[in-house]
Amino acid sequence: MNIVITGINGFVGTILRRLLEEKGHPVSGIDIRSSDSNVHAVDITDQAAVMRTMDELQPDFIFHLAAISRVDYTNPSLLYSINVTGTLNILTATTHLAKKPGFLLASSSQVYGIVDDASQPITEQAPIRPVNHYGASKASAEHLVQVFHHEHGLPFAIVRPFNHIGRGQDPHFVIPKIVKSIREKNTSIQLGNLNVMRDFLDVRDVGDAYIRIMENFKDGGVFNIASGTAYRLSDMVGLIQEIARVKLDIHHSDSLIRKNEILKAIGDSSAFMKQYNWHPMYSIRDSLEWMLSE
Question: pTM of the full predicted structure?
Answer without folding.
Answer: 0.96
